[in-house]
Structures are given as structure tokens and as C-alpha cells.
Amino acid sequence: MSSNSFAYNEQSGGGEATELGQEATSTISPSGAFGLFSSDMKKNEDLKQMLESNKDSAKLDAMKRIVGMIAKGKNASELFPAVVKNVASKNIEIKKLVYVYLVRYAEEQQDLALLSISTFQRALKDPNQLIRASALRVLSSIRVPIIVPIMMLAIKEASADLSPYVRKNAAHAIQKLYSLDPEQKEMLIEIIEKLLKDKSTLVAGSVVMAFEEVCPDRIDLIHKNYRKLCNLLVDVEEWGQVVIIHMLTRYARTQFVSPWKEGDGLEDNEKDFYDSDEEQKEKADKRKRPYTMDPDHRLLIRNTKPLLQSRNAAVVMAVAQLYWHIAPKSEAGIISKSLVRLLRSNREVQYIVLQNIATMSIQRKGMFEPYLKSFYVRSTDPTMIKILKLEILTNLANEANISTLLREFQTYVKSQDKQFAAATIQTIGRCATSITEVSDTCLNGLVCLLSNRDEIVVAESVVVIKKLLQMQPIQHGEIIKHMAKLLDSITVPVARASILWLIGENCERVPKIAPDVLRKTAKSFTSEDDLVKLQILNLGAKLYLTNSKQTKLLTQYILNLGKYDQNYDIRDRTRFIRQLIVPNEKSGALSKYAKKIFLAQKPAPLLESPFKDRDHFQLGTLSHTLNTKATGYLELSNWPEVAPDPSVRNVEVIELAKEWTPAGKAKKENPDEKFYSESEEEEDSSESSSDSESASGSESGEDEEEDHSGDSGEDSGESGSESEAGKGRAAKHAKARGKGDSKDVDKEKENSKSSESSSGESSSIEESSSDSESESESESESESRTITKAKEKKTKQDRNPLTKDVSLLDLDDFNPVSSPVVLPTPALSPSLIADLEGLNLSATSSVISVSTPVFVPGKTHVLLHRMSGKGLAAHYFFPRQPCIFGDKMVSVQITLNNTTDQKIENIHVGGKKLPMGMQMHVFNPIESLEPAGSITVSVGIDFCDSTQTASFQLCTKDDCFSVNIQPPVGELLLPVAMSEKDFKKEQGLQLKLCTVGH
Amino acid sequence: MIHSLFLINSSGDIFLEKHWKSVVSRSVCDYFFEAQERATEAENVPPVIPTPHHYLLSVYRHKIFFVAVIQTEVPPLFVIEFLHRVVDTFQDYFGVCSEPVIKDNVVVVYEVLEEMLDNGFPLATESNILKELIKPPTILRTVVNTITGSTNVGDQLPTGQLSVVPWRRTGVKYTNNEAYFDVIEEIDAIIDKSGSTITAEIQGVIDACVKLTGMPDLTLSFMNPRLLDDVSFHPCVRFKRWESERILSFIPPDGNFRLLSYHVSAQNLVAIPVYVKHNISFRDSSSLGRFEITVGPKQTMGKTIEGVTVTSQLPRGVLNMSLVPSQGAHTFDPVTKMLSWDVGKINPQKLPSLKGTMSLQAGASKPDENPTINLQFKIQQLAISGLKVNRLDMYGEKYKPFKGIKYMTKAGKFQVRT
To answer: This protein's superkingdom (chain A) (predicted)?
Structure first.
């Protein structure tokens, strides 16, 4: 502690030392024992002095104490002038604490707050991105309307900043500015539009949040970014994921047609759940107008699936609601397991998740039935959790499990938690009505409970029995008699009223008891609850009508009592009944019908779940939890009848290329590259990617895809580097030509690994160590798959302009010196790369013809291992020949080996399970395969230019084996030949574009 | 999103408030206090409370209510999950999360909260990044700070936030490179009166403590990954690799973290390692009841059961108990009616038992339900599901780390109905 603060201690005389800044705050209060006010004033004086000292430690101490005051909710606003002076402090901690103070009080002291603005404006130009970001953060958090234009300018600049972190902060600032001045909406939307195009995972979540807050109705802004958001989703930070998923759910409901079959939505589709996918598909095919899911719709559903594994409950819930609202019903089943997992979490999480499950379980029982036991109640659960679990158990009850459930309920009824016991009784009542087989058992059980010691339990049972009896017009005289006896002991008004009503309704069935009950209640009438009094009146009236001989006097006595009751409801009822039932000269026509009126057949009450209609709120929302519309709730629209034009989501390449240009410029302008850690990373990564290509030229079709996937992940760290990497790549490509056959499987794997890695930083490290690493190919393929999904089944209309671009890139991969092969359209792989990267390749005309590959890798892939195939082994490889079965098909050669010592007969392809749009041309059945024999057949598969797996069954006479073929991206490309001039031209174009960026 | 945060202790004092947007008056908490009053117990306070202009979302942990104020529609789990993350962060920073500790470190708490949210939207929630931004207080650092006047705020800028591995801080250096993994499995079970299992399942986690220099890339593989039915990962785990090979491949955060939590598929029968014999009876007429429980080992795979504690909430009618344990110590709180018996180790030769009588309220009728018995226990060196780690490899760094794997089985929510 510096001498300065020591001095302070002495002069303040409080003796409450501020030895440690943090503790100071907790010790302030006792010092003010004498005259709280004056000492407070004095303290603030001290603080002012400390803030004005030139020792940082004193300032820091003062700031810490001030923050302590803020935390406790004490007013520290009068220190504003003293504090604001320190905004330019060199000490980071002081600065931070001043920021905390400013954000808290600037709103109240607007004029003084303006003093600090220039500091932030300077900091906004700082070479350090973190300083720029934090300056923007504080500047936008100061809620002073005068600085709106300054904020606007700062946000605009920051949104074009090179650093994604600054751009992220800009996205946050948009929301702040919007809440400060909603009139800026139009301008802000422009910025949002720009930021939505951002490829960084860091920005995505924040900008979507801004979108949701500022312009959630501008769904058109999403179109172009839809696929990108879907693909980035896995890498976005968890909070961003939640926001994006909710937004995309809404989007999907407006843009795609319903994947649900008609009538599905309303009915319990238990049956549906059990249908296997195949059946589902078959059914869909059989229908006249078969439903085909938009590939973009599918993309969203598939890309969110891994997020069910998130550790963040909010993310899991978000995915669950997405599946619930937009996935085909047969697929929604996968969410139940993850939701049940969340039940292990904290009480609060359980509460929300159980509520959502309760809503779901009403509509689709099948989803949660396998997890029935997970909803069993433990005595240690809080009551609200118990009741929700009970609700779900009730929803899941059916003929098969009801006996187990009833046994479980028996335990619950005895619970010490009486509120819960009462809820259980209600539940039993509901089960009894919904499952007729057990209604008698339930009724008997409930009757047994009537002899329970606890009054709450008995009362609840009475109420439920009343409802049950009302539903079953069978004779239950015994039960009624029993209940009549209970009237002597039970005091709970609802129960008493229920019994009286029941006796009144059945007064003709219990002719001896009913008048006696009336007699007893007449005695106690004055001391009864209002609810009970009304029922006594009713009972009296009913008896008067059916058995007036015995009860006439009693009823009149009761009516007299009612006439002078304090409650006007009762007086009213009394008057009404008297007029209706007691014949006198004034009575009108109605009294003739009195009996019909009182003893009419009453409709039985419906025992329904309180969660029945909650599903009109989007699941997982606050509104769903509260069951009322919360402020700012956005309705989930119904599926459109006809899907809006899906082509709006197609990304035009040129537009993206434009976007890159300014980013590149910005980079050039900025001289402080070294400061960014990322500038080094990006060099590394671009190096590594180009390395990988030169090393494995032959397979680089595939590699290139992976490079791209790597790059796009890496985007988060950079924006301008793209063009640079592109340049490097192009140059390397040229060199790599001719080295085509330098193929080394290990090397290739290693490279694909390093390029696939989404982290620029780690990729360089991984590379150095990767000798020991063995990465399976399938994995890298699947990596690239996620990225390329967006492009699968690319609509035909944009094929034509794009094919050329692609074949241009392909050129490097295949030797151009080869004879052209006649093929109708070289359209095997459209836009994969172009779409992804935004490399601008204009469609200049050039002669491009398909060529035969010079190099065909001999690598085979295992289709069916002999162990799992009961001796039948199958391998496949891609011969890279044009497929004879169709121009869109990729030919695949399958080699079948018989490793058993017996003949294998009738080998053929059985059921195919192909993704939408895929086609497969199978081989002719092989009649028999000798022991140790082998045979090669070829098949053609149209992978729809995607890397989706083609699954089918390989059958022999006795068995069927499910097998998969997943094509590496490279195998989907087509070799083309083009003249060197054309190549140069294309290359030049590409290079030029890159240099524009600098 | 999140407007403000109030921290309320069990006696209903607001001892910390933080606002990320305009200041919301404390009086909004009155609605919360109302709800608290209505719910007799703290854990029955509803997590979501609507008020005319705001919504209060709260979590209750360590006897503190963390009440977040929000104004517009937001996924409630988003807020709840975030609040739990706040508590976890405090715990990570200060070792414990309690009112005095928060009050003592109010400045650090404030700085951390400031970094965690921007305009109510989570900004930095990874503890690795936060610790780079604001160093957690240690005794040593406090002393040093007092002498030198230096601070807890990191002077270098946190680059982790910008990297693509946001969970790992950069420039990590250790002299001893170690990586420890604890496989902890918990058995959740309900056992009925007669001793048969109503429901039992195994939930497991792998907690890691990784102190490795640089940017190591680890892979962890299992002997029997098929056991894992449902898993959730730390964001560092590469999901694709798990999908295709059932291998955990990840760049670990620095320090302690939960790598994986899993659920063992329901097909596998769960071995129940303990049994409880009980004889609890209330008689209608007499004011004395019999109480007798014995705990014994069942399927323990030859391991000892340790750390056994038995707790039971007895009915309100029980006034007092006079019990004699064969081992360990027991307490009975006549106010809350909570019996707890700290058994310790189970010796299969001499089974621990607790016998005696209960004195009941005279004249009161006998309670309907016998109390449920909650059991806690630990078994070292055993993962009850049989899960085994096959190997752990490190890539990306040259040195040889020290690796350790520990297994443990614990009771989760283990209840015996009597």
C-alpha cells in the first residue's frame, strides 16, 4: 500500500483501514456509526481526493471502493466529475473500473459524460483490436442521445473492421443504438445486412441477435445467408447457436412446405413414430404428389443434429424445439434422449425441460414412452418438479403401462408432501377417464383413500370421485352412501360441496339417505362455507322436487335461512329457487319444468392436461413457460401452402467477391499487421493449405475441398487473407502440375488433417507433429461434407454459368493432355467451390472438354468386411471413368470376394436407402461365387453432387448386409481438358481479382 | 437479453446488483420476495416469475438466489444456463461461492460480470478467457498486490477470445506436464420396499485436469465405447471424429474442465452395489416406534464401499429418536426431522446397523408413509458400467506428459423406499 493511501487512512480518522482494496468496501459501513450522513459525505470527499492524486494505487483504491458502492446499489453519482477525468488513465484496471462507472452513471450525467467521448473516439482508431473493441463497447453502452451520430459512425466503421472481434462488438452496439434511438432503424438494418454476410463464426451469433432485436420481420435478409449460417452453426459459440437456431426455426416455417403428412399435426401420431424411415419414404412415394424436402430444409435439420450433444442445456433445447417444429415427425424422436439427459441437471433446467416435455408428450406419446422411468418421482425432488413429472407420467399412461404406473402412484399418494399427494389423486382420476380398462380399479383405489387420515387427501379423492361418478352413469350407490357418511367428518368445503352435489344428483338412487343428509346440513347451514351453502340449497331443491313429502319443510327452512344470508349470491340463489320450485300464483310457466331444469343430464367434466394447448407457443420460449404471450414474442407462422421460391437462397458468386474487396483494402491500410496474432496464423494456414495441395496433386480434387473447409473455418480469425490464400493456391497449382502422381497415402492424410482443422493456429502445430497421427479418411471426408452440404443438389438453373468455373479449378487436378471424351454435360460438380469461397470466376467462354484421367488411384475402400459379411467381402473403388449407366452417375467398381469354403449364391443388391434425389444403378445378380473366388462388378450412383452416403443392402441367398458408399469429393469431379491459353486466361482473371484485394 | 442481475441471500437481502442496460430499480425484487414467501421452501420458488414489466428468472445455488431481470421474450434456458455459468465461474475463481466471499471480492466479481455479458448478451463465458482477462485472487497475489500496488487485471491482452480455440488460453507453460482424467459414474436408483429395483441408471462424467504446455492435441479412446449411449461434450471435442471412430479428439482447455458426460445405455443391467435392510414401524396405539436399518454390500466387484451416509426425512410425528449405531455417528434434528448417519466404510464381515426407537407424538395417528432412505457412497477404482479408457495420446507437442486415469463410482440420487 502506498504512502498516499496511508495518509488517507490517517486523515479520514475512521481507522477502518483500506488495506486491501477489495475489503475496503465491506468495511465502509461500520465506520459511519456516528452520523451516517456526514461520514458519507466525508468519505466521498476522500474518494475525490484519492482520485485526484497522481498515484495510480490511490486512484485504484478509490475506484474499487466506488465500484463496491455501485454493487451495493448505493448512489455514487456525485463523484462523476472526479471519476470521468481518469478515463484516459494508462492503468488498465483503473480504466476498466472507470468504464464500469461510466456505463452505470452516464445516463444520469449526460453533459459530463460527453467529456469522455473523445477518449473513446481516439481509442476506436487504436491499432489494437481489443482496445478498439472495448472502446466501441463502452461508447455504445453510454446511453446519451446526443452521441447517436457518433455511435452510428463508429458502428459503421467497426462493421467493416478487419478484426472479427471488433465486428462482433459492432453487432452488439447495433442493439444498443437501436434501443437508444429507434429512428436509426433503417441505417442499422443496412449494417446488419452487411454483417450478416460475415463469414466469421465470432460474428454470426451476435449479428443474428441484433437482427432479432431490430428487424425480425426482415426475413429476406436471411435468404442469402441461410446456407452459410447452417454450415457455420457448429462452430459458433454456444450462446450464438441458441439465437441462430431460434431464428432459423422461424425462417424455415415461412420458407419451406410442411414435411408433415396431412392431419398429422392434430392427431396423436403414435403410429407414425414406429414407422421406419423406409416405410415412411415408401408411403411418401406412393402419394400422388410426393413430398420432397427442400435440400435447404434438410440441411438445417442435419446440421443442427450434432448440437444435441452440446453441454449447454439451452442449445439442446433449441435444437429440440427446431426438430419439433420443422422436422418430419418420424425424425423428431431423436430429441427425446437428449432432453431426458437434461433432467440430470439443476432444478431450474429440469423445470423448463419438463414443461416442454409435458407439452410434447401430449401430442406424441411415443417419443417419451421408452423413458417412462426417467420421470419417476424421487422424494427429494422439489414439489414443482414432482408435479411436472406426474403430469408427464399421466400423459404417457396407456393400457400397457398403466398397472406399473398405478403401483407407482400408490407410493406417491402416501407422500409426506401433501400438495403432491393431492396432485397424484387428480392424476389417478385422469388416468381412470382416459383408460377405461382401469377406471374401476382407479375408482376403488380412490374409495380406499377416503379412509385416509389426511384430510387433504380425502377431500381431493372426493372431488375426483365425484367427477368420475358423473362420467359413469352406472349405479354406484355404495360409494355414495360411503361418501354421505364422510360428510360427518370431513371439513374441506370443496369436498363437502362435492358430496352434497353428488347426493343431490343421485337422490332418487339413495332415497333414504338423501333426506337425512339434508336434515343434517340444515342444522349446520349457518356455519358452512358459501360453496357448501349453495350446494345445500341445490340439494334441497332437488329433494323438494323428487321427494316433497319428506323434505318440504326442511327445504323451506333452508330457503328461509338462505334468504337472510350475508352473501348476496346465496340470497340470490335462494330467491331463484323459491320462485322456481315452490308453487304459488305468481309462478310462471317455468316452474312446470323445474324438475327438468334441476335434474337435467349434466355433461361430464373433461379432465384435461393443463399443458394441452400450450403448443401454440413455440417450445423453449418464455411465452411457453408462462403460457401467456411475453413481450416481444414472435409467432411461429404456419407452413406455407406453396414454398416460396427456393432460388432466393442461391448465393451469387460475384456479389461475394465484391464483398471481399474492401476487406482486403482495409488490411492494406492498416500498418499494424504485426500486432495481430492472427496475421501470423494466417500465413501459416495459407502455407499449409498450399502445401497440402502440392504434395498430393493427384488427389487434390478432394484436398481442395478440404482446404476450403479449413479456410472457411479459419475465417473467424481473418478476413482479408482469403484473397492471399487464393493467390498462393493458384500459384502452387501451376507448379504442382505434372507432379500428379506423387501420391503418398500417409502424406495425404496428414495434409488433409492439417488443412481440415478449423483452427488456423493449431494447424501449423498439428502439421509438425502429424507424422504420428493417423487420421482416417472418412473423417476428413465428413468434415468436408458439412461444408459442402449447402451445395448438394444445387438447382439446375445455376449450373450452366458455374460449371466452367469449376472445371477451371479442376484443371490442376488432372492432366490436361488427354483426349476429350464425349459427354453430354460436364455437370457433375457444380459450384461446390465457387459457392463456398466466393472466388470470383467470371464465365468467360473457353473450350473445355472432359478428359480421361491419367492417374487412377488404386486405393480401394472396404464396403463389407469379411468378418461382418459372413465370409463375403466387398471392396469398392472409383475407376474415374465416365459412367456407362448415366451421365450424372459416378461409376463405382465393387469387387466381391468369397472367403468362405462354400459357394455364396445369389449376390444382389437389396433394399436401397438413398437420400432424396440420389439414384443408383445396381449390378445384375451374381448367381454364385466359388470359394476363394472373386468377381468385379460395376455400379453407377448419382450422388447428386453431394457427399451424402449411399446406403444399400448387399444380399446373398441367406443374408442381407447393410453397406454404405460415401464418395470423396474428388471423385465427384470430372476431368477436363483445356488449352494452356485458356488456363492462363482463367488464372489471370483469378489473380487479378486477388490483387485487387491488396 | 439479460437486463440486470440481483444476488439475494437467504435472509432476503440484495447484496449485489449489476445492470447491463438501463438501471432497473431494486423494487422489482419485491415480486420475487412475494413468490419466495408463497413457496415455503427455497427450492420451490418458481424459476420464472412474471411481473408487470419484467420477467424474473432465478437460480438458487449455494444458498444464494441469482435473479436475472429480463424484459422481452428469450429462451428461459438461455438465461438459466448462463446464471449457472456465472455461479460456476465464481466457484472457479474463489473456490467457493458464498455471500461473504462475493462481498470480499466484489471488485473482481464486478469485473468478471462486466466481461461475461455485453448489453445482456454473453460475451466471454469460458473460464480460460476470463482468467486471462481478470486474474483470480490468490493469497500470494493479494499479498503481492498490496505491496507492489499491482492489480488483478491481466496486463497482456487476451488473445484467446480471438482465436479459433476460444476455450484455451495461449502461452501456457508448465514445468511438470500432467493430464489427469477422472471417470466418475453415478448410480441413480429407486429401490422399492422389498429391495427390488424400480429404476436404475448410470450417468457418468469424465472430468479432466490438464496442465500441459503449449497447444497439445489429445486423443482419448475407450476399450468399450459402445457402452456410451448418450453423450454431451465440452465444445473442444471434435464431434466428427467421435461419430466416425468413437475417439475423443480435442485441444484441451487449460486447467479443470468437464470433458464429457454420458449416459450408459439402458440395455445394460445396472449392478446395485449396496442393499439396505430396514424395519421401520409405527404402532397406532403406542408412542414408540421401532427403527432398524442395516447396510450391506451387494455387487461390488470386490471393492470396498466407502463414504457411506444414510439420510432420511422422518415424518412430522416423530419427536425424537434414540438410536445406537454399530459404527459411525448419527444425528437427528428434531426440528427438520432429518436423520443422518455417517457410516463410513462397509466391512462385509460386520455389517453396519443402526437400531433403536422413535418417540412419537402422543395421541397422533401413525404416519401413512414410511420415510425414504437416501444413500450416499463411493467406490474407488471402479467404474460400475465397466467403461475403460484404452489409451491417451498427445500430438502437437514434443514433451512426454504424465498421464493419469482414475475411476470412481458414486451414488447419485439413490433412494430406498421403505
So the answer is: Eukaryota
Nearest CA in chain A to B24: A73
pLDDT in tens, A694-706: 444 444 344 444 4
Chain A residues near residue B151 by CB distance under 8 angstroms: 60, 91-93
Q: Supply the ipTM of this predicted assembly.
A: 0.91
Best of B27, B43, B119, B394 to disrupt the A interface (most A CBs within 10 Å) is: B119
Residues forming a β-bridge with B275:
B296
- Alpha-carbon B60 to chain mean position: 13
Cβ of A765 and B396 within 8 Å?
Answer: yes
Alpha-carbon span A30 to B106, nearest angstrom: 17
A798-831 CB burial, b ≥16 within 10 A, e <16:
bbebbbbbbbbbbbbbbbbebeebeeeebbbbbb
The one-digit pLDDT tens for each residue of chain B (418 residues) are 899 999 998 888 899 999 988 888 889 999 999 998 888 788 889 999 999 889 999 999 999 999 999 998 999 999 999 999 999 999 988 888 899 999 888 888 988 898 888 888 888 888 887 887 787 776 666 666 656 555 555 555 555 555 667 788 777 888 889 999 999 999 988 998 888 888 888 889 999 999 999 889 999 999 988 888 888 888 888 888 888 888 999 999 888 889 999 888 666 678 888 999 988 888 766 778 888 999 998 877 788 899 999 999 888 888 888 889 999 899 999 888 899 999 998 888 889 999 998 888 776 666 667 788 999 999 999 888 888 999 899 988 888 889 999 999 999 889 998 8
Residues A718/A678, Cβ–Cβ less than 8 Å: yes
The shortest C-alpha distance from A893 to chain B (Å) reads 24
Name the CA dihedral angle for B360, B361, B362, B366, rounded to a multiple of 10 degrees: -70
Q: Which residues of B touch A309 (CB under 8 A)?
A: 231-233, 239
Report the gap between the CA of A576 and the closest CA in chain B (Å). Answer: 39
Is A239 within 8 Å of B71 when comparing Cβ atoms?
no
A975's CB contacts (< 8 A; 6+ apart) are A810, A813, A814, A818, A850, A851, A852, A853, A880
Strand A904-913: give its sheet, edge to edge: A926-929, A904-913, A950-955, A960-965
Pairing mode, if any, of strands B338-344 and B389-395?
A: unpaired
Q: What length does chain B have?
A: 418
pTM of this structure: 0.70
Residue B228's region, left for phi above 0, alpha for psi from -120 to 50, else beta, is beta
Q: Which amino acid is at B302?
A: G
**Do the Cβ atoms of B377 and B345 come closer than 8 Å?**
no
Residue A349 has pLDDT above 90, yes or no: yes
List the end-to-end C-alpha distance of chain B, in Å, as a whole number. 47
Closest Cβ opposite residue B157 in set A57, A128, A209: A128
Contact (Cβ atoms closer than 8 angstroms) between residue A296 and residue A227: yes
For CA atoms B255, B138, B184, A376, the dihedral sign is negative
For the ranges A382-386, A765-769, A883-887, A899-903, the lowest mean pLDDT is seen at: A765-769
Q: What is the pLDDT of residues B250-276, one digit of tens each?
A: 999 888 889 999 888 666 678 888 999
- Beta-bridge mates of residue B350: B347
CB distance A18 to A2 below 8 Å: no
d(CA B410, CA B307): 9
- Where are the alpha helices (H) located in B23-117, listed in sequence order? 29-38, 76-94, 99-104, 106-116
User: CB within 8 A of B119, min separation 6: which ones?
Assistant: A140, A141, A172, A173, A175, A176, B1, B20, B21
Q: How do beta strands B338-344 and B306-313 pair?
A: antiparallel
Sole residue written with cell 414407422: A275
